[in-house]
Design goal:
The structure is a homodimer of 356-residue chains. The first copy, chain A, is built from 10 helices and 14 strands. Chain A is an alpha+beta fold. The two termini of chain A are 29 Å apart. The N terminus of chain A is likely disordered.
C-alpha cells in the first residue's frame, strides 16, 4: 500500500487533475461529477473498450436476436438505509428501472445482489427485501435472480445492494444529447432535490413542519406517457440522480455542443426543501432526485408533453424550465429572479456522499 | 440494534435453525451452504416470489421476444484481491460467464459495478480493471455498462465487484436436477479445490514446491463442446464454486430425489492441493472451484463426453467420478480407497469465508 496522500485543496479541485495525481480513490470518484467522469474516461473505458460502453448512457443498448434490449446496472450504498419516503430496497428497484426507461426501454426483469455485513439485523433485511418485492410488483418488473455475500464486521456498512435490469426497446426512438437542436425545450416532471434533502435532513438532524420525503419512484410509465404523446420529438431523457439537474443539463450541453438556458423561477422546489438547502448552503440544482424526469423535446411538442405529464400522478408539477440555445456552447446558464445570469456547473467531486 | 447472539454450538448447527433463531446475519449466510439456502427460502423467495426465481438455478431463464435468454448475477468479495492465478477482476468475469453457461446459454454481455473503499490505490484498481478487460476480451463477452460507488474508509474492503450477465439459449436443451435418471454418470472436467486452496494458502502463509494457483477460467466453450457431443443426453450441469463439488452433488441429489455415489479415488486432486487440504483439515470436495464443470450425462454418452472434454485445454483431466443411484435418495455417498463408504454433506455455514 502506498502512503495516503493529503486531499487536494479546493483550488486544485476546481481544475480536475489527471488520475495519476490521485494515487488513491477519493469519495469524489463515486460522486457522479467530474472526478467520476475522469475515472470512467481514463481507467474504465480503456480497460473495457467496446462500442456499447462508449455511448456512455445510463443503460447500454444492444441487439439480441430480433430484440433490441437495454441493460443497466447500479449499486446502492445509501446511508442511512431507511429514510423518510423509503429505504435502500425500493431505491434499488426504482433506480435501475429508471435507468432503463431513460433509453426508451420497457423494463422486463431485475437481478438483485446483496453484500451484507456480519451482524446486520435480520429484521432490517426482511424490511428491505419486503420493500423491494413490493416495489418490483407495483412496477410490474420481477426480480428473477439474485446473490448474497456476507462480509465480516467492519468491512461493510449494513447492506449494499446491486440491481441490474434488462429492458426491451420496441419503438424506433433514438435518444441522446447529440440529437438536441437550438430552440428545444427542457421539461422537468416535478419538484427537485427531494431525495437528497430527505437523506441530508436525517443525517443532519434537521426538522421541518412538513417532513421532507424522498421522491423515489419508477418512471417507466411516465416515460411511456411522454413517448406516446411526443414520439420522435423527444430528443433526450435523464433521471437527474447523483449531481442533480445541474449534472444532467451539463451532460446535455457538453455532449450536444450547444448551450442551455434555464429560468431559476420556473424550477419547482418544495418550500421545506428550499429551506433545507438554504440552511445547508446547497444549490437544489445539484441535489439528487430519484423520481424525476428531465426531457428535451422539440418546441412544438413541449406544451403537450407538460400536459401529458401533469395527467400522470408522478408529473403533476411538470413545467418547462428552459431551452437549448446556440449561445455559450457546452455551458448551462440560469436566469435569476432579478434578471441576472449565473453559470451552472457540474460538481467536481462529492457534495453529498452516499446519497444513493 | 439487538445484542449480538453467541454463535450456536456445532451440535445446534447440525440441525439448521429457522431464521428467527438468527436475529442477525452471520458469515455462514453467505457461504453457499445450508444457512444460505435457508435465507433464500425463508426471506428472499417470499419477498420476491416469481416463477423464474423459484427455479433456483444459478441463472434465470426467460423469454424476451423470440429469444430465450438467461440472466445471472454475482458479487465478488474475495480476500485477498490478488492471489496466485488471478485476481478479483478475472474471477468476476469468469464467475458470471460460468453461471450463464450452466443453463446452456451463450454469454452475450456483462455489466460491472464497483463498490470501492476510499483510499484504495488507483494502481490496484487499474490492475483489476485491466485483468477484467482482458478476461472479457479473451472470452468474447464485452462489458457493456457499469457503475462506480465509493464508500468511506472502514466501510468496505478495498474493492467489491458485481457482474451481471445476459446469455442467449439457442438450443432446446432443458437442463436441471429433476431430469436425473438412475444410472446417469457424473463427469468432472478436472482437478478440484485449486481455487479455494490458492486463496487459503495465501491467507495461511502456506508454501509448497509448486505454488497452488486458482483455476479461474471461463467454461462456456467447454460447455459448448460437451453440448455438441452429447446434446440432450446431458441432464444437468454445475460449476462447483462455494461449497465445492460436495454442495453441487447434494443439490443434484436433493432436487432429483435420487442418490449419488462417487468413487473417492476417481476424483482428480493435485498433490499440493491434497497436502494443503490435509494441513488445514479440509475436505477437498467442500472447497470452491472457479473453472471446473460437473455434468450429469446419460450412461451411453459418458465416455464420449469425457473424451470431448479431454480434447479441450480446460478439460484435460476429465473423468467419470460416480453415478446416480436409486439407493439412499437425497444423499451423496463416497466409496473410499479401502472400500468403506462415507456420507458427503453440504456444509452448514462458511468453512472458507470470502473465497469468491
Amino acid at each position: 500500500m502506498t502512503e495516503r496522500p493529503s486531499m487536494p485543496s479546493p483550488e486544485a479541485l476546481a481544475c480536475p487533475l489527471p488520475l495519476r495525481d490521485y494515487p488513491e480513490i477519493v469519495l469524489g470518484h463515486g460522486g457522479g461529477g467530474q472526478l467520476s467522469s475522469e475515472l470512467l474516461e481514463h481507467l474504465f473505458l480503456p480497460a473495457f473498450r467496446n462500442p456499447a460502453l462508449e455511448e456512455r448512457n445510463d443503460a447500454a443498448v444492444l441487439q439480441l436476436g430480433d430484440a433490441r434490449i437495454a441493460i443497466a446496472t447500479d449499486s446502492f450504498v445509501v446511508r442511512p438505509l431507511f429514510f423518510p419516503g423509503g429505504n435502500i430496497g425500493e431505491l434499488a428497484v426504482h433506480g435501475t428501472i429508471n435507468d432503463l426507461a431513460m433509453v426508451g426501454a420497457r423494463p422486463c426483469c431485475l437481478s438483485a445482489a446483496f453484500i451484507i455485513e456480519e451482524g446486520f439485523p435480520m429484521e432490517q433485511l426482511a424490511r428491505i427485501t419486503h420493500a423491494m418485492g413490493r416495489a418490483a410488483e407495483a412496477a410490474g418488473v420481477p426480480i428473477v435472480t439474485g446473490d448474497t455475500k456476507v462480509v465480516e464486521h467492519g468491512h461493510g456498512d449494513g447492506c449494499y445492494i446491486n440491481t441490474t435490469g434488462i429492458g426491451r426497446i420496441t419503438s424506433d426512438l433514438r435518444l441522446g444529447p447529440r440529437r438536441l437542436v437550438p430552440g428545444d425545450r427542457i421539461v422537468l416532471s416535478g419538484t427537485i432535490a427531494d431525495h437528497g434533502m430527505a437523506i441530508m435532513s436525517v443525517r443532519e438532524g434537521l426538522e421541518f413542519e412538513a417532513p421532507i420525503e424522498s421522491d423515489t419512484a419508477p418512471l417507466h410509465e411516465l416515460v411511456e406517457t411522454v413517448v406516446e404523446q411526443a414520439g420522435t420529438e423527444i430528443r433526450a431523457m435523464r433521471d437527474p440522480t447523483r449531481g442533480g439537474v445541474a449534472a444532467s443539463l451539463n451532460e446535455f450541453a457538453s455532449q450536444s455542443g450547444l448551450g442551455i438556458e434555464i429560468d431559476d423561477q420556473a424550477i419547482p422546489v418544495a418550500p421545506a426543501v428550499q429551506s433545507a438547502c438554504e440552511i445547508l448552503g446547497i444549490d437544489p440544482l445539484a441535489v439528487a432526485n430519484e423520481g424525476k424526469l428531465l426531457a428535451v423535446v422539440a418546441p412544438d411538442a413541449a406544451e403537450d408533453v407538460v400536459h401529458a405529464m401533469q395527467r400522470h400522478r408522478l408529473g403533476c408539477r411538470a413545467a418547462i424550465i428552459g431551452q437549448v440555445v446556440r449561445d455559450h456552447p457546452g455551458m448551462v446558464v440560469a436566469r435569476t429572479a432579478i434578471g441576472a445570469t449565473r453559470v451552472i456547473t457540474t460538481q467536481i467531486g462529492e457534495a453529498l456522499p452516499r446519497i444513493c
